[in-house]
UniProtKB/TrEMBL annotation:
Residues 20-33 have a biased composition (Low complexity). InterPro entries: CLAMP. Residues 35-48 have a biased composition (Pro residues). It holds the Pfam family CLAMP. Residues 1-52 are annotated as: Disordered. This is Uncharacterized protein.
């Protein structure tokens, strides 16, 4: 065979160029190996509430949760009679409020869920916005939490909060979220409700919660302990009835 036309140095340089062209750059390899970025979370609605309001009130429900509950209730009312149960909306509301985690308080959670369901249904009938309904639910939940505190006015030490103390707490929270509170430049206030809405909300809470305060307190704060007793009882077997063929007619 004849001598090679390319000198050794030239052939080595060409092979290096081919290898450099075949191998990707480190920057390109790093970009290809990097995992894709997760999608950005959807933006919050403009009427969304923070976890803690400027008044110090803890949020119980978000505005989108109130709207979704109302949609479920409307679908159930359109598809079934009003006397039937609404399991989908009740289950959604219980999950949104965090009920059902403690199995020992299943009955108490069911009572609270029923109250909040009636509250949201009432606010929907009053044509309140979902933001106002979420704030109202937060106020009511804080009122229920106040029931577990110790009373500061009862003579006996250790008694739970009385109805008057809980109502004063409800009144304080409600007035802090009225339109008149920011106008008075009071610190820690938030204008949400108008005065007519305050009256309507107070009418519902007074006739549903405070009118039956002792009952709610016995169920939620001081539940009665149930005691189950099991005993063995021996029963005597009754005697066989006499043969009627041997019976005698009795003169009347």
């Amino acid at each position: 065979s004849g001598p090679s036309l390319c000198p050794p140095l030239l052939s080595g340089a060409m092979s290096k160029r081919k290898n450099a062209a075949a191998a990707p750059s480190p920057e390109l390899a790093a970009e290809e190996a990097a995992p894709p970025e997760p999608p950005a979370p959807p933006p919050e609605p403009p009427d969304a509430l923070p976890a803690e309001l400027p008044t110090g009130l803890r949020r119980a429900l978000q505005t989108v949760q109130v709207a979704e509950y109302w949609e479920l209730r409307q679908e159930e009312q359109e598809g079934a009679s009003a006397s039937q149960e609404a399991p989908a909306s009740r289950a959604f509301l219980a999950g949104a409020l965090g009920f059902g985690k403690d199995l020992s308080r299943h009955f108490q959670d069911d009572v609270l869920c029923s109250f909040f369901a009636d509250l949201l249904d009432n606010l929907s009938s009053l044509c309140l916005t979902r933001r106002k309904a979420a704030v109202a639910a937060s106020i009511v939940r804080a009122t229920f939490a106040k029931m577990h505190d110790r009373s500061e006015t009862c003579v006996r030490v250790g008694e739970p909060c009385s109805s008057s103390e809980c109502f004063l707490e409800y009144k304080r929270l409600l007035l802090a979220h009225t339109m008149a509170a920011p106008a008075a430049q009071a610190p820690g206030t938030m204008g949400v409700f108008t005065l007519p809405e305050v009256r309507l909300l107070t009418d519902f809470v007074s006739t549903s919660l405070f009118q039956h305060y002792t009952l709610y307190q016995c169920v939620l704060v001081c539940p009665q302990a149930s005691v189950t007793k099991r005993v063995e009882v021996s029963l005597e077997r009754p005697r066989r009835p006499p043969d009627l063929n041997c019976a005698k007619l009795k003169a009347v």
